[in-house]
Amino acid sequence: MPAAAFAAGVDELLAASVDATPRELAAALRSAAAVHASGRDRTVEVVWTGPPTPRLPVRLTAQALKQLIEGAHDRLIVASFAVYDIEDVALALYNAADRGVQVELILESVTGSGGKMTFEGATQLGRQTLERCQLFTWPLSRRPTVHGSAASLHAKFAVADRTCLLTTSANLTGHALGLNMELGVLITGGEAPREVVRLVDDLIAQGDLVGYTPVA
Amino acid sequence: MPAAAFAAGVDELLAASVDATPRELAAALRSAAAVHASGRDRTVEVVWTGPPTPRLPVRLTAQALKQLIEGAHDRLIVASFAVYDIEDVALALYNAADRGVQVELILESVTGSGGKMTFEGATQLGRQTLERCQLFTWPLSRRPTVHGSAASLHAKFAVADRTCLLTTSANLTGHALGLNMELGVLITGGEAPREVVRLVDDLIAQGDLVGYTPVA
User: Mutate which of B138, B154, B163, B166 to disrupt the A interface (most A C-beta within 10 Å)?
Assistant: First the structure.
């Protein structure tokens, strides 16, 4: 809940408490604070790449992704369709793995896409980063097809420790993180980050995401 | 705040209220309910296209987009990079415009992309829908370039009435809405939908989004 809403709630409470005893009022305030605290852990921030505007308090995509990666303690999951020209992200992933974070990358791949993707994005992360991460893709055999055209692994998101989720239109490319018009949200706390981790775990468990080695 | 968190808050309150008078307890509960209600208007739902999994309570992308479009009363903004094979969405947009909703479509375009995009997505919506919508794109002259490659209008989102926001990796294509792996979130209430509407208004005001006519 935003602070403004909490303040409004307290105002309302005080206005309704003219005939309350001090002890009642204290109990009501303690209660309101407890309820407020239980919801306070979830924030939603708009994340934007594109022309700056005067009044939008948004985070830039590159900045939000960097913050999420750097904030991961135990497990970091990053998914993307395209990967290109992102040395900063590769370094941040390397550093996360180096400090003991389990890093899982879910990427579109040459083999998984049945050759529809001709460029192996994972290789853009560099050997040293790749050696420290687990790579997953969607095997071609598990993809639905329509009119001979197989589905794509097109999701772009990042989750840190079941607590922080970035979903976005932005691929892991220099253009997407700094140049294009891209929109997403950074969600801290609440159920959504946990749900996405469970989704990934289930997709791995049922064979819709499998480990792979990038084509050189 | 999720119902579970509210219930936990009430449990905590009751546990701490052994020596409270009934009147104090009532005041505390009223207060908690008021604070809870003030935060209740914001929900975050994970939105997914891809293989189903047993335990994820997600919405499908097609379903979430349809719900958002059908729920719009005054103004509907839909942004996408690609548009292809989406008769259902075209019909939902037509119906929204027909019931008086101002429908604004923000799309990548042949001209805006400087020919990088060779297919005019907007035409996939059909003449009757297009006649009832305002079309916006990012003019080439306003796009930053790196090494001769211009930025893309790659954002994919929808906002209804400043109250409901879908941000996603999914383009307005049949594959994205029903076949690929795509992730997003549907946010109802709170600041994020309003912030995105302000962003669009500012981009239009400063000339980064301009009306256009699709190349036939």
Answer: B154
Query: Where does residue B192 rank: exposed (0-12), middle (13-18), buried (19+ CB within 10 A)?
Result: buried
Query: Could you report the per-residue pLDDT of B13-68, keeping only the tens digit for each?
Result: 556 555 666 666 666 666 666 555 545 558 999 999 999 998 766 679 999 999 99
The domain spans of chain B are 3-39, 43-211
- Element (H or E) spanning A23, and its range? helix A22-39
CA A109/CA A112 separation, integer angstroms = 5
| Spatial separation of the C-alpha atoms in residues B96 and A69, rounded to whole Å | 40
ipTM rounded to 2 decimals = 0.83
User: What number of C-beta contacts closer than 8 Å exist between A and B?
Assistant: 240
Distance CA A128, CA A125 (A): 8
Residues of A within 8 A of B20 (CB-CB) are: 27
Which of B5, B9, B195 has its CB closest to that of A46?
B195
Which letter, b or e, does each residue of A156-194 get, where b requires 16 or more Cβ atoms within 10 Å of its Cβ?
Answer: bbbbbbbbbbbbbbbbbbbbbbbbbbbbbbbbbbbbbbb
Structure-block tokens of residue B205? 């005001």
Closest residue in A to B201 (Cα–Cα): A53
Has residue B10 got a pLDDT over 70?
A: no
In CATH terms, A43-211 corresponds, of 3.40.50.2300, 3.40.50.970, 3.30.870.10, 3.40.50.300, to 3.30.870.10
Best residue of B61, B141, B181 to probe chain A, by most A CBs closer than 10 Å = B181
How big is chain A, counted in residues? Answer: 216
Q: Are B1 and B35 in contact (CB under 8 A)?
A: no
Cα separation values, B91 from A89, B109, B126, Å: 41, 21, 9
Q: What phi and psi, each to the nearest 5 degrees, are found at residue A64?
A: -65, -40
pTM metric for this prediction: 0.83
Question: Where would I find the H helices in chain B?
Answer: 3-15, 22-39, 61-71, 87-98, 127-131, 174-178, 191-205
Using a CB-CB distance cutoff of 8 angstroms, which residues of chain B are in contact with residue A155? 50, 169, 180-183
Sort residue B109 into left (φ over 0), alpha (ψ -120 to 50) or beta: beta
